Amino acid sequence: MNSYPEPPPQPGSKPEPTVSHPKPGAVLALCAIIACVVFVVRMQSAHRAGGGEEVRPNRVLELMARYAVGVKELLQLSGNGGRSAGAGASAGASQAMLVEVKKLCRSSEDELRRVILEGWLGDAWPDEAALDALAARNEGLREDVRTLRQLRALRGKVADEAWEKLHGRHGWLADLARAQAAGDGVAMKNVAQAGLKTAVFLMCASFVGLVAVVGGMGVLLLAFVRWRDGKLSVTLAMRSQAEGGVLLEGFAIFLALFLFPAWLLRRFSMPLPGWAAYGPAVVALAVGMMWPLWRGMQRSQWREALGLHRGHGLWREMGAGVLGWLASLPMLVLGMVAASWIMKLTGEFPTHPIVDAFAGSGWMRLGAILLAVVWAPVSEEIMFRGLLFPALSAWLRWLMGVVLSAFVFAVIHPQGWAGVPAIMMLAGSFSLLRLWRRSLIAPMTAHALNNGVMCVAMLLLW
């Protein structure tokens, strides 16, 4: 961090925005934010509960299945004399991974997927008794079991409609069953190679991630030493409560406009093109940003309060963002440890709808990348580190501002409660970057880099 001199001190006195009754407005805004958070949590809980929605692949279980298939292939290829020499080690590893896969099963559909995987790892067709038991237990699985048996009887050839339905419900696990039913060496090799690619990538990513975390710990240690010696200032120009109230109002309006119009469009199933769903989000961002100006805040105060300035220059701020992201990795690991405890207690695993996009077509992947690497870092940093964090800090001091803004940020993301600790750690690190640099360029850079790394991982995995 030696390359980045501290930003110049903020001007001493500024006129407060001409805001009438800022406290009632702030209280109403806070109530609106709480209401929006409760609304999001309830909607996410209903979605995870199922609610009769169409069955979709379990991407977490699918990823574990690909890894298990890949590890089996890797062990067999590494044995002297080919597959037979590695059979013993492969069988032991397969059993251990099946135990882990069973922990991921949350429904009868997941159990069917586990049975398919167990058959592949055991070099046998899925157990017929287990298929019968699942079909008897869950009426929705009867057609899936019937299609699986048709695949076996017809050596992987069934009607297109039946196959598309099976694949739409079970994803890559359906490919696994089809390759095994066909008995085609090429098809089976292609599936095994896909699993091998996933296993090798995850092993390499784990090593690279470990190196990055160690590097991040070094950056954190250096930052602590510089802070202790008075060479690193972590502060944000204190906003008045009147300014904080206006910023809080802007964030509340953004959140309401972001959530409820989109919810109404989905609820009434209005026939609109796909891009129209992003219209409310763009309007919400524009109105939330401009609200402090409309409420009387001077433009210079507005730019400083939201961090909409270049700081010490674009490249220096971006470099600071890279260092900040690296320093956030050890904290992210702590969040992941906390998430593992939540997963053990609740049986829930963090998931995100964007994973389905990376398992889809090229255009879906491109849209997901633009959404994650461009739109999310810009819009979320402006709203959460530009409006919400300074607003809460004006009323509750910066530490509570970091914690509460990070909590709101994490809860409204769709990963569920298991994902909250890790996302809070990331959001907290973005707020600390805002404290250090005062400009939003650094947290935007860190946010984009984090999402970009995840997108690259998804592209390589799927």
What keyword list fits this structure?
single chain, 462 residues, mainly alpha, 0% strand, globular, disordered N terminus, membrane, EC 3.4.-.-, hydrolase, CPBP family intramembrane glutamic endopeptidase
Summarize the structure.
One of its GO terms (molecular function) is hydrolase activity. The chain is mainly α and about 450 residues long. It is built from 17 helices and no strands.
Describe the structure.
The structure is a single chain. By secondary structure, the chain is mainly alpha-helical. Helix content is 75%, strand content 0%. It has helices at residues 22-49, 59-78, 87-104, 108-121, 128-137, 142-153, 160-170, 172-182, 185-228, 241-267, 279-294, 299-306, 314-346, 354-358, 362-411, 420-437, 441-461. The longest helix has 50 residues, at 362-411. The radius of gyration is 26 Å and the shape is globular. Mean pLDDT is 84; it is low at 1-17. Residues 1-14 have a biased composition (Pro residues). This is CPBP family intramembrane glutamic endopeptidase. Residues 366-452 form the CAAX prenyl protease 2/Lysostaphin resistance protein A-like domain. InterPro entries: Rce1/LyrA-like_dom.
